[in-house]
TrEMBL record:
Taxon lineage: Bacteria, Bacillati, Actinomycetota, Actinomycetes, Catenulisporales
InterPro entries listed in its UniProt record: DNA-bd_HTH_TetR-type_CS, Homeodomain-like_sf, HTH-type_TetR-like_transc_reg, HTH_TetR, Tet_transcr_reg_TetR-rel_C_sf, TetR_C_23
A Pfam family hit: TetR_C_23
Transmembrane segments: none
Region listing for Disordered, in residue ranges: 224-264
Keyword flag Magnesium: no
DNA-binding feature ranges: 36-55
Protein name according to UniProt: TetR family transcriptional regulator
Keywords (A to Z) from UniProt: DNA-binding
Domain HTH tetR-type, residue spans: 13-73
Organism whose genome encodes this protein: Actinospica acidithermotolerans
UniProt cross-references to PROSITE patterns, sorted A to Z: HTH_TETR_1, HTH_TETR_2
Biased composition (Pro residues): 241-257
Gene Ontology terms for molecular function: DNA-binding transcription factor activity; transcription cis-regulatory region binding
Gene3D superfamilies: Tetracycline Repressor, domain 2
Length: 264
């Protein structure tokens, strides 16, 4: 599978960001299934070939959004975690900073989750295609554990971050459908469960609990997290099939996007 985007000059990065912001705006207006790559290109003021040049499919656009959200969250959370040794407080910080970073996208989050809820979908957080964003968040939860005043053996330090990530996913799913003002119910849920999760993490270092952690990890890997499928052909979906990439020098002058950043 081709790379999700092409890096290069500032102009090319600007064009890529424009296409992504435009796609997010259209996803919010029409849903994922109701948006085509042609419509995204037209709204962004680029050719269809250029849209495919930066993102090989709609799936890659959503993955680009996942990656950007994970990157922004990691930067904000890592700064907020500095000098905080208490595990419960560290779990709370990671969850509430994610809610802060994700808030601008709440309007269409439920539409994304409609597709992401299917475990076989490339948009699922458990899919092989979501691996980069997933591992970024898991690594952040590893930082939550290793930066606390508690110490675990190597096996538990390897297994627990994925358990914390599953809790994070549950919070994200609740948030996507939360209609309370500023998603206050989700924030209260994050606040209240952070301490519980921290207590479970604390007792997991005891040998009597360790088999349960191992079993949870085994179930996660066997039934949820997917490995790359070498037989999957993205060209089998006519809307996902990408034409030959356009040369980078063919970038047109971009027009402002009607995406979340500009439409509020």
């Amino acid at each position: 599978m081709r790379e999700a985007f092409r890096a290069g000059t500032p102009k090319s990065e600007h064009t890529r960001a424009l296409i992504l912001e435009t796609a997010l705006g259209l996803f919010r207006e029409h849903g994922y299934d109701g948006t085509t790559m042609r419509a995204i290109a037209q709204r962004a003021g680029v050719s269809v070939g250029n849209a495919y040049y930066y993102f090989a499919s709609k799936e890659h656009l959503v993955q680009g959004f996942y990656d950007r959200l994970a990157e922004e969250h990691r930067a904000v959370a890592a700064e907020a975690l500095r000098g905080v040794p208490d595990l419960g407080e560290r779990v709370r910080i990671v969850l509430t900073t994610w809610l802060d970073v994700a808030e601008p996208y709440h309007g269409f989050a439920a539409k994304f989750f409609k597709n992401a809820a299917d475990p076989s979908s490339p948009l699922s957080p458990f899919s092989a295609e979501s691996k980069q964003a997933r591992e970024s968040v898991i690594e952040l939860h590893r930082l939550v554990l290793t930066g606390s005043k508690l110490r675990y053996d190597a096996e538990i330090e390897r297994l627990l971050p994925e358990m914390l990530w599953l809790h994070h996913l549950g919070i994200a799913l609740y948030w996507a459908h939360d209609k309370s003002p500023r998603t206050e119910r989700t924030r209260r849920l994050a606040e209240r469960t952070a301490g519980t999760v921290a207590r479970v993490a604390r007792i997991s270092k005891y040998k009597v609990v360790r088999p349960l952690v191992r079993e949870a990890d085994a179930l996660l890997r066997e039934f949820l997290i997917s490995e790359p499928d070498p037989d999957r052909d993205p060209a089998s979906d006519p809307d996902q099939a990408a034409p030959p990439p356009a040369p980078e020098s063919a970038d047109p002058a971009p027009r402002p996007a009607l995406g979340p950043a500009s439409s509020g």
